């Protein structure tokens, strides 16, 4: 494993848009105003169906997906899906999971992603995910998996953590490699799993025959969105206090109420970005920065004349409400048309299976299983 310092040096030396590194550490951020995707790329990402999308999902994943879908060359392949197998690592009632799966599809579409440009599907509909997962798991070291920070955080407090929760990063690697992905947009908390994916791809290529490209991690330009009620932790659907979580389909009245109750601080003469000393204010500045696609410095200049919390929070409310208006209305329309959602998914499932079956056939041949 690379040292933290060496990894940091490598990341800093890489270009911010199209990365060309000899190291297996391939991570890039992008400027959505100047986004360049190489010809013949394969862009892939999944999101868990844990209910309606919140602000963090929107800025950290879905809007990035939309940017990539719009900018990808015609020669590229774009695949987005619902990670419903991953959702089972912490079991849910069947009826709830079924609802969540289609809410996730509606949320993806309501962000503006065109199902004619991107394959949109359910992970569980493509059995090749599970088969490649097993093959790759035979190359995944227990020690490597045990070091995963997501495993440590998600298993904390559980009386009995499942094998699925422990090993799901390998399934995630199978998801990515099954479509020979070259670019994978994820949040910063998933970057470690992409390192594992590159490791497993390299191991398989060396042990058998070159089969998989080594995918590049694309990190969202927006910093992690934190809870409005407790800015020491990220915004979450599982937070007991849902006043700290803003959903894309929240009404303007609900958004205003939640933001009004948001934790800030006692300084009202000015509003500046300082995540250590002013975490609540900084979280909202970061949110504005993400939505408006402006730098933190530009946002600070825009709000320099504010001298009370009410004015500041009203501004934040207006920015978020305006951004969510169109997706919220479209989400509501889509949820009233289950037949359309089903047709989109069936079309996506079919296309995904076609690609996946071809890759798995190659994998099995190279591994001596065919």
UniProtKB/TrEMBL annotation:
It comes from the Eukaryota. It comes from Wickerhamomyces anomalus (strain ATCC 58044 / CBS 1984 / NCYC 433 / NRRL Y-366-8) (Yeast). Pfam families: tRNA-synt_1b. It is found in: Mitochondrion matrix. This is Tryptophan--tRNA ligase, mitochondrial. Belongs to the class-I aminoacyl-tRNA synthetase family. The keyword Disulfide bond does not apply. Its EC number is 6.1.1.2. One of its GO terms (biological process) is mitochondrial tryptophanyl-tRNA aminoacylation. Keywords: Aminoacyl-tRNA synthetase, ATP-binding, Ligase, Nucleotide-binding, Protein biosynthesis. GO terms for molecular function: ATP binding; tryptophan-tRNA ligase activity. CDD domains: TrpRS_core (cd00806). One of its GO terms (cellular component) is mitochondrial matrix. Coiled coil: none annotated. NCBIfam families: trpS (TIGR00233).
